[in-house]
């Protein structure tokens, strides 16, 4: 006779249901404890784990975020639209810096969500990327491929010559990293960076859509904001909000709160209608300009999608939006604005269609082409403004 049946006889029918619920709750809790234990991988033997909070974090526009590696300050919860707030918990563009003389390196991180998208690589979505500084600049070492559980503990590299190296770890693009540990073999040095690279002076702050957030780079280091940061050797802050770059004024105010920005880049058009640009575009700009009269601002035109050649309704919509963005820029110029610049979108990612995953979001090739077009403009503007 099963234990629950036996208890039915002793307790009587009036209390059987309640007792069963207690037993089942206990069983469920025990099962959850087993699952949690399975999700928590054992730390590798012979390695010392150091929480990455011991090292500086970059790529953030503000402190006071819910998690160390999220992007929006807690003060915007309930202020920003819920979709914007949730996307602000993603870690796109955020990275930590450290150095070590270790011959091997592990990274252990916890993901906020078990996020999945059917058009994006898991390494880009919720993985991490490790770069090392060489004589030729920042060089990709290896990705950390995420496990199916919340916690991933993975070997990044082994068998290196033991010498002091500077490292950078990029966080996930479409998931949030809530905690991270760096692990090196026992006895090795693991400490904060000695070099200011990428430089934190006068950061570039980029606002935009899912494409700017990193969709659909195969790994975090291939998001074009991160590519541009390495090419400039300057901190670039990623304020991409997938599907939600709709000129929310509190985001402009957040950007304006940066004390000494080098440049603002506005690439919001793919998420906006022509009407929304007409309604909110100038005020969004004014929030930035009023706070920073001498900081250059670059407007980026709508990126043509690969299928607009075939979808005539979409083509007309995008062409209208491009014209609306251009007219906003001309209006600002006519009002005497001097430190504003415009990047046309027609040749941004090539004409062969191979820059896209799904006709809208970029492949790594598309990310590189975008960076190839935009980086020289940013360099020229920064040099001119200096």
Features:
386 residues, alpha/beta, Jelly Rolls, Rossmann fold, 2 domains, six-stranded antiparallel beta sheet, five-stranded parallel beta sheet, 10 helices, 33% helix, disordered N terminus
Explain how this protein is built.
With 386 residues, the protein is α/β, with parallel strands linked by helices. It has 2 domains: 47-191, Galactose-binding domain-like (Jelly Rolls), CATH 2.60.120; 199-385, SGNH hydrolase (Rossmann fold). It is 33% helix and 23% strand. The protein has helices spanning 3-11, 16-39, 82-88, 122-126, 210-213, 224-232, 249-256, 274-291, 312-334, 364-385, and strands at residues 47-51, 57-58, 95-100, 105-111, 128-134, 137-144, 151-157, 165-170, 177-185, 190-191, 199-208, 234-240, 263-267, 297-300, 340-343. The strands form 3 sheets. Strands 2, 3, 5, 6, 8 and 10 form a 6-stranded antiparallel β-sheet that branches. It has a 5-stranded parallel β-sheet with strand order 12-11-13-14-15, sandwiched between helices. Strand 5 (128-134) and strand 6 form a beta hairpin. Helix 6 (224-232) crosses helix 10 (364-385). The protein starts with a helix and ends with a helix. The model is unreliable at 1-38 (pLDDT under 50).
